WD repeat-containing protein 91
Amino acid sequence: MTSAVELTDDLVREYLTFRGFTNTLKFFEADIKTDKEKGLRGDRIVEQLMQFIHSFDLNGMLEYWAYLERRLFSRLEDVYRPTIHKLKTSLFRYYLVYTVQTSRTDKAHDFFQKQAVELQNQAEWKEWFSLPFLPTPEGNPTFATYFSRQWADTFTVSLHNFLSVLFQCMPVPTILNFDAEFQRIIHVQEDNDVLRHKLFALQSETQRTRKEGDDGPLVHHKLPPYVSNMDRLGDSELKMMSSQRNAGVSVQSPKSSGFLSSLLPQSKKPPTKPTLQPPVSPPTQNMAVLPIKKETTNNQLPKPKEVPTVTKEARGPQNVLGVPGSTDAILVRQRRVLERKELLSKASSQSIEKKSEMVDIECDVRTEPQSDLGDVTTKASNATSGGDKAEQPFIVLSQDEYGEHHSSIMHCRVDCSGRRVASLDVDGVIKVWSIDGFMQTKASSISKSALLSLEWATKRDRLLLLGSEVGTVRLYDTEAKKTLCEIGIAEDMPRILSLACNPSGTSFVCSAAAPSSPCNIDPVFSGDNGGNQVPGKLLLWDTKTMKQQLQYFLEPVPIAINCTSFNHNGNLLVTGAADGFIRLFDMQQHQCAMSWKAHKGEVYSVDFSYDENAVYSIGEDGKFIQWDIHKSGQKVLEYLLPSDATGPFMLSGYSGYKQVQFPRGRLFAFDSEGNYMLTCSSTGGVIYKLNSDGSAMESCLSLGGHRAPVVTVDWSTAVECGTCLTASMDGKIRLTTLLAQKS
């Protein structure tokens, strides 16, 4: 921070000189000389306070501390107020001790005369009023500690550290971030170059192995799992693995195996033997392997009878790889295969790590006929991925967790720049945190009234729109950490269910609904599915004036709108309602262009497709449906999602405890090209591939990492690497960075 401020000052001087703004430059230099913040340097601020104390300038010390409170300390959260108060108390005591040590009791009397009104009601100062009248205060047990050199040094160091941390964490102007951004980009480019070189080395190695296999039997080495962790391996380790392959070593030595085991996680240990499998395009297949929990729902091993048996050829003097082997070694290998078969037959389901071990067992029998080999590897591939896939669409670069929330998440949205996230939980706690570089909380607020909806403002991405259940919408400044204004929407419709800001930035739509309590006097009618459906309004508000522009007419009856979404230019608005209808509004004509019955039950989430020729929706019936908006809502694709992807979401605990949450936030999100979709699940996010030919969706990647059901997702593509957010009922938010594979 200090170097950035000094460098920025020099750049401003250079710019003003270049532009010929000499008068501005003079004032700038004068302001720097009288800068009370001392270039945001904590050591200089401490020196200034010590100068006031040593010169007995009580007024100067008080005025300077008041300036620090007004300019710096006021930006901190309330949790730091006790710390600031303790530092102020210690500063006053440091001044009093110095006056007594220098025999200037008159200055001590002067201090108490000026500060008596403020300090006399504070219990911690009760005994200090007698300090000037004690003959030897340093011998008094109450004051002895404060006269020691150790206490004085501890206070100055604590004050310096507090100021330094404050300057590091406080929000700064964009111009001060350029140096950090420049360094971060350089580090990212260097890391990318290293990974690219390692990737090219592995590709060339695989191609060389494939060419060597053309001369003999068709045998291919499976890329080891350390490829997905190659950012942890150096060049020496990669050379070691390469030399082992070139030497034809099929079994790792205990030394190298132990070395890699110490580097890699337990679930990512490299296989002990090369694995036989059909050719794959190097090296993309294994690079998207996630260090996730063991899953047994969709990842089960083939039955034990599918494990290939040892044939007569296995007793020959030479295996498939052409490496000579003794009869004893073959018998030992056969016995180990039979023992593992017996162990596998006792297990009902195994994890992904166990599956890789089973493939290794198959590779131990080196003399299996080629026809049987193809069947075995195909089964292992199907057991692992649920189908024959040539490559994974994404490389998982990193996974992080944000754990500042302590209750279930309702909304979690990335701003348009892709650098900050706003999250809201059921307790009304709002957190704004950065995701560029490292996760850091930028702003935090607690709402007195329950909040139901959240949306980033489009043009000024520092602003948040927050909808409550008492009929108000707040405009919250995330940098100033305060509410700019709060407007009342509708007294008879207090629940603000959805907010959507027009991409043009001139307006936002607001969905208001009547109370859902039984004592509500508003009419509650029954829908086609027999469920109670609450009336509501859809309103358009001006962002600048914060005044209502108009109310949209909802047919056949006013109904609560659960979800809203604009297209890229704000000319179209799609909504999903509690009556199961999807309505498409023309924002230029300010009327409903078309509507159709989409789901049996409520519509939970809705959004436009990438080309905006279609609309996707998820409803209470558990269906994910694609609609053609050019053919009056004709159904293009229908897919039945698992129940844990659509809600209601349930979290069970001990003693029969159950927590049920109905969907509030987004239930699905798309990648930058609209080819892949992220949804919720009970253990993490799941990515599906959307097929343009209208065929069924394919589950291609499970992000995992959650211990509670995921209730809302978001996918930011503002930066080169996509960022997936998955938020769960235990308050945890997982941040997964993906790199798309270029086909």
User: Anything to note?
Assistant: The chain is about 30% helix and 25% strand. The CA atoms of residues 368 and 632 lie 59 Å apart.
